[in-house]
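Attaching the record inline, Q. Sequence:
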Amino acid sequence: MSKKYIKRSVKRNLSERREYSIFTNTLLMLKDPVSEDVVIIDVVKDLEDIIPSKFFNSIDMVIVGQFPELKNTDRRAAYMDGAIYVTNEQPSSEQMLEDIIHEIAHAVESEYNNIYSDGQIEKEYLAKKKRFLDTLSSYGYRVPNRVRVGSEYSKELDDFLFYNIGYENLVGFITGLFLDPYACVSLSEYFAVNFEAYYVSEDIDYLRQVCPVFYKKIEMIHNGEEYEI
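Structure, as predicted:
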C-alpha cells in the first residue's frame, strides 16, 4: 500500500467525518457539509487553544448546518437551550471560529449570572449608547426616542442602524465607543462583541482602553478570580 494511497484515504475520512469533540465533553456535529474553505478540525483545535474549557460547561453541542431560524435573519449563529447553532455557509474557518466564540459569550452570560449584578458593565454600555445616539442626532439622523432607553435588545434600533444608516457607514461614529456597530443594540451584544474581541483581536490594548469596565470583568472571569458585587 503506497503512502499516497494512505494520505488520500486519511484525507477522505477526515472530510467525511461528522462528529468532533471539544474538550471531550462538548460535541460538535456537522449536520450539513461546509465549503472547502472551512476546516472543522482546525476550528476545534483553535477553540481549545483560545477558550478556557470551563466556558464549555453549559454548552452540550455545537451544531453546524442549515437552520430556518438563522436563514431568515442576518445572523450566522445562535445560542439556545445549551446548544450553539452555526450556519454551514461560512467563507472561512476563521469566520466560523469567531461566530462560535460570539455565541460562547452568550453561554457565559447565562452561567456567570453575576456579571451584571453590580451594574457597572450596564452603566458603561448605556453611557456609550447615549453618546453614540446623540452624535447621530447631531449629524441630522432622526433617532427614534424609544430606542434611546434601556439595555435590552431593540429590534427597532437594530433595524434603524442597519436599514436607515447602514452598519458600514457607522464606523466613524463608533470609534472610541464600540468595537462594532452591532455592540450598541443591547447590553448582551455589547458583552458578546467585546468577549469575542478579547479572545481573537490582535489589538487587545484597544479593547482595554475603550471598554475598561468590561475588560476588568472578563479578566477576572478568565482568571477565575472573584470580584466584589
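The longest helix spans residues 93-111. The first strand starts at residue 19 and ends at 22.

More tomorrow.
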